[in-house]
Amino acid sequence: MPRWFAFAALCFLVGCATPMPKDTPVVDAPDVLGDLPAQYVGTLPCADCDGIALWLTLGPRASYVLQQRAIGAEQESDYIEVGTWQIDDAERLALTPADSDETGTSLWSLTDERLVALDENGQAITPVDDYTLTRRAQPISRAFADTDWFVVNAPDAHQGGRAYIRFGDEGRLTGSTGCNRIMGAYEHSDTMLTVSEPATTRKACPSFEDTEQSMLEALRQTRRARVLANYLLLFGPAGDRSPLALFQAESEAMPVAP
Question: How far apart are CA 231 and CA 55, in angstroms?
């Protein structure tokens, strides 16, 4: 996916407000949002592709995942953004990325199960229908255990392998780097997660080295985990707002990027 669109271009389209402080409090879902998690989907215009598909997942405790894909681009891949949401005094949805110092906050109005993108002046971008996300009736949901969690945008996925992890019975971790098998042990309780001695088989896979090293390092540093609909976020010690790694469970409605 053209990185030019990513969040910088989305900010240009929907408007970026002043960044929120990093200590934004965790809040319960307001009535205007209804039950959580909630997922909104839609396709925004794109200057040099067929459109930008957006999947926005809002979770309890004010967390969100925004997934973007340039449809018909020369090289399709997904851009993933995570952060916190808040409803401001005007009942607008404000999305603040975990790293908000540079990117700021995007604003959306809430209207009849829809989100409408707002510009930097808080006005709806026209034509409104082209900049609208619609709420899914049933959000996609996956369990932490016994789910294949795939790495999103593994740098060497084009080589043919698919990197994933799976938390199985009796504290056993299995998976693949796309070339080598992953194995290890884990302990999981509520949001706490630790992985002991993650290791791989020894097949020589120079093309998959980046993914393999990144996965192993993230697993070694993981101290917390959060499942948000069909996403798995791994975090370091308490206080770290940016995830170490993000995985996605495959689904027909929200496919894993190739």
Answer: 12
